[in-house]
Amino acid sequence: ETGVTQTPRHLVMGMTNKKSLKCEQHLGHNAMYWYKQSAKKPLELMFVYNFKEQTENNSVPSRFSPECPNSSHLFLHLHTLQPEDSALYLCASSQDVASGAYYEQYFGPGTRLTVT
Amino acid sequence: AQKITQTQPGMFVQEKEAVTLDCTYDTSDQSYGLFWYKQPSSGEMIFLIYQGSYDEQNATEGRYSLNFQKARKSANLVISASQLGDSAMYFCAMREGFSGTYKYIFGTGTRLKVLA
After folding, report:
1. Chain B residues touching A113 at Cβ < 8 A
2. Distance (Å, rounded) from C-alpha A53 to C-alpha B100?
3. Three-state secondary-structure class, residue A75
4. Contact B103 A110 (CB under 8 A)
């Protein structure tokens, strides 16, 4: 596998379910990100991890819970979601987030989530 | 106020012609970075080009160039010799902030359709 992979690619879940999204990067990067992409809205940054430490939480509801066990893996645990949480969830990685250089982000293909 | 504004929700261009996608930004930081990403229908965001706020020359990457006008706070993407494979959503993004507090902000995107 190369680049950034995400599983599953599609997920349908009820409001009372618990599920997890997985992201893995094979680029040797130190920073990983979760984004939410809804129709006709800008991409929303949810969480940022740098060297496994969470550096940003953009006022995301607690029904979304991230986990970063190492620099290569990132999870997004979901529970008691709402229909408005249906969206494409994108994972990204970059070399670093704390240095002064502006590293581009590499994105995975996303998980299309539908909450029923 | 929008930090990144892309005023063209959709654009058409004839194959082999050039096209300009508009992007304006708003920041009070002196140091920031501007990015363009392409998102095909498959969903994966692909990095295209980067411009730093202190870069004096416009960035170029193959058929992509960034028309950076700092005083006007614009960072338009120019695609030369359009190809059918260029049909996709294009997002302008900005990174601002300081070490440990960087924020990535995306625009709403422009859907480009290349006509044969």
Report:
1. none
2. 11
3. strand
4. no
Task: Give chain A positions within 8 Å (CB) of B107.
Answer: 42
Tens of pLDDT, residues A70-102: 989 999 999 999 999 999 999 999 887 665 566
- Express each pLDDT in B31-66 by its tens digit: 889 999 999 988 889 999 999 998 889 999 999 999
- Residue A114 CA from chain centroid, whole number: 16
Q: Which residues of A touch B104 (CB under 8 A)?
A: 33, 45, 105
Q: Which of residues 1-60 of B touch A (CB under 8 A)?
A: 4, 31, 33, 35, 37, 42-47, 50, 52
**Burial grade of B41 (CB within 10 A; 0-12, 13-18, 19 or more):** exposed
- Going from the C-alpha of A84 to that of each of A105, B83, B89, B116, the distances in angstroms are 26, 36, 23, 38
Angstroms from A115 CA to nearest CA on chain B:
19
Q: A51: alpha, beta or left, given left = phi > 0 and alpha = psi -120 to 50? A: left
Nearest CA in chain B to A4: B44
